[in-house]
Design a protein that fits this description.
Strand content: 15-25%
Radius of gyration: 27 Å
Largest sheet: 7 strands, mixed
Mean pLDDT: 91
Number of helices: 25
Structural class: alpha/beta
Number of strands: 17
Distance between the termini: 60 Å
Helix content: 40-55%
Shape: globular
Strand order of the largest sheet: 7-6-8-9-11-10-15
């Protein structure tokens, strides 16, 4: 056995964990925490949330008979200790790499991953479904949902609470893992309510005393519940929010005290019906840099585990920073500009404008549908909102955009960050579908900038447009184009451009896929093949004049896009050629009709067949 670890290597599954004594659990938790830090320092992941939830994961698997008892993690940012406990300790070193395990719970990966958890706020609804199924099938099964305080702001979480509170016979425990942090500090009335509950010492002292009595004398249940409500009304000046939804509320307790967690969870196992346990944890617990810089160490990239020094990429600016600085520049010259984000101010760089103009920036919590309709309300009253949502999360607000923005044709600028393949977060986070699902919506302009300068100028163009306007751009750094301090220039809507003249074959690209095409064109030219390269700039409306010229000049055309081929740019271009009666053979490169797993962006673009090598190969084949 490795002498560095006294307990870590002894635990290969929850059955092994349960052979430890309660007094050995704190030492095991510290070894798990140290192992997570070591692995994530060289193989980056979501660090801070998982460090804070180590004791919670260990206690849950220690008390409950998993996988028979169901454990659902919301989002999965908290679940690294869960993976290590459930037989994936060695595989954890491969998490988020091509061919390795996922950074999130995946049902196909382990029987202990009872539900896929890539997006926030799903756990309560899924857990209630499982608890109801156990009830209907006559199974004695405990079901536990673990949800963070940030995820609790999502509308789906409220819907789940509302419905599950009516299921009095369903044995469901919701654990509210409250660390007063999502990726950024959470906002809204619920966050303030949780602070009021968690900081009322008198209330919590009485609540703990009543809970201990309940554990010893179940017959006092009704009396204690009534007394508890009286305490809550007297101390908090209102009834407990969760108990108003028929959840028995217990807490708060220290979520980083594994022995206390084991004791409380063991008591809660004896109580049926819907319950909510409020635990307080520290994001980044046990690692000083992560505790001190909680936002930075949510997903810090590579870092020195001894000093905490982060080793981020250098060079070109990130697209998100181009968005953030440009939005501030636009807001300085136009008082109608406002910024909206669903809980991602640092992730999308809206925090740049927030520091100077906080009254014109709105973090609405993890509530994408609300973000879009709130933006529509601003636009209907004369503002020009720039609503920034990650492409994959925009899928949740699709109805809101159609009904509340597109039908009334309101000037909402929807900035879709993280479009295309995003890398290590995998299938739940790739922005593969935005061109397909937005392209069929009337009254909507869809822009795809190829570099930083185009993103800046398309944001300026959108401000002038007065119509629903979507701008999609990828995660990560740009091409190094000059943009800071440059004068704004309007890019005519629906107009593309020729980036490279050629005579043998044409390549038509959308967005940042142009960079791969440029490499392929240069390589082909070095071998005597003359390839023309056209950048569409706008996916909707298409530049029909440009495409008509391409269709008349070339018999072979390759389209390249960083998105789904079904319903994407290639299909739209092919359909145009057909309508015009142009005899063009089209080869479309992009993401095929399948979900793409995790890996680096370069690896995934090669795997999907639209990196520079794939474009070059297509040119050679068609010639």
């Amino acid at each position: 056995m490795n002498s560095r670890w006294r307990y870590l290597m002894r635990v290969n599954d929850p059955a092994d964990l349960r052979t430890l004594t309660p007094d050995e659990l704190p030492a095991y938790c510290e070894e798990v925490r140290r192992y997570i830090i070591e692995v994530c320092s060289v193989n980056p992941g979501h660090l801070g949330s998982s460090l804070g939830a180590v004791e919670l994961a260990v206690a849950l698997h220690y008390v409950y008979d998993t996988p028979h008892d169901r454990l659902i993690w919301d989002v999965g940012h908290q679940a690294y200790a869960h993976k290590i406990v459930t037989g994936r300790r060695e595989a954890f070193a491969s998490q988020r790499t091509l061919g390795g395990i996922s950074g999130f719970p995946r049902m196909s990966e382990s029987e202990y991953d009872t539900f896929g958890c890539g997006h926030a706020s799903v756990s309560i609804s899924a857990a209630f479904g499982m608890a109801k199924a156990a009830e209907l099938q006559g199974e004695k099964r405990k079901v536990v949902a673990v949800i963070g305080d940030g995820s609790m702001t999502g509308g789906l979480a409220f819907e789940g609470l509302n419905n599950a509170g009516d299921g009095k016979n369903s044995d469901l425990l919701v654990i509210l893992n409250d660390n007063n942090m999502a990726i950024d500090r959470p906002t809204g009335a619920l966050g303030r309510y949780l602070v009021r509950v968690s900081t009322s010492r008198f209330y919590n002292r009485l609540k703990r005393s009543l809970w201990r009595m309940l554990g010893r004398t179940p017959r006092l249940l009704n009396l204690i519940r009534k007394a508890g409500n009286a305490v809550k009304q007297g101390v908090l000046q209102n009834s407990n929010f969760f108990e108003s939804l028929n959840f028995r509320y217990f807490g708060r307790i220290d979520g980083n005290d594994v022995r206390e967690l084991v004791r409380v969870l063991s008591d809660l196992k004896r109580i049926g019906g819907p319950k909510l346990l409020h635990v307080m944890t520290v994001k980044g617990k046990g690692y000083a840099p992560a505790e001190t810089h909680q936002t930075d160490f949510h997903a810090p990239g590579r870092f020195d585990p001894e000093t905490g020094r982060r080793m981020g990429p250098s060079g070109a600016d990130r697209y998100q920073d181009v968005f953030g600085q440009t939005l501030l520049d636009l807001a300085r010259i136009d008082s109608r500009v406002a910024g909206i984000t669903p809980a991602m101010p640092t992730g999308c760089s809206l925090d740049i404008m927030m520091r100077e103009m906080p009254s014109r920036c709105f973090d609405v919590g993890i509530a994408e549908g609300h973000a879009v309709t709130f933006s529509a309300g601003l636009a209907a009253s004369g503002m020009v909102p720039f609503c920034n949502i990650y492409s994959t999360f925009m899928q949740r607000a699709y109805d809101n955009f159609i009904h509340d923005v597109a039908i009334p044709s309101l000037p909402v600028v929807l900035c879709l960050d993280r479009s295309g393949v995003v890398g290590e977060d995998g299938a739940t986070h790739h922005g593969a579908f935005d061109l397909a699902y937005m392209g069929c919506i009337p009254n909507t302009v869809i822009a795809a900038p190829s570099d930083e300068s185009e993103l800046r100028n398309m944001m300026y163009t959108a401000l002038q447009a007065g119509t629903p306007f979507v701008i999609r751009y990828p995660r990560g750094t740009g091409a190094g184009a000059c943009w800071r301090g440059c004068d704004f220039a309007e890019i005519p809507v629906g107009r593309g451009r020729c980036l490279h003249e050629g005579s043998d074959i044409a390549i038509v690209s959308a967005g940042t896929a142009a960079r791969q095409c440029e490499k392929a064109v240069a390589r082909a030219e070095a071998e005597g093949v003359s390839a023309a390269h056209y950048d569409l700039r706008y996916v909707k409306p298409l530049d029909e004049e440009l495409l008509r010229e391409v269709g008349r000049r070339f018999r072979c055309v390759i389209t390249v896009e960083d998105g789904s081929l079904r319903g994407g740019v290639g299909e739209a271009v092919t359909a145009f050629f057909n309508r015009e009666g142009l005899a063009v053979r089209v080869r479309s490169l992009g993401i095929a009709d399948r979900f793409v797993e995790h890996g680096t962006v370069a690896e995934l673009q090669a795997l999907c067949g639209y990196d520079a090598d794939a474009v070059y190969a297509a040119v050679k084949e068609m010639i």
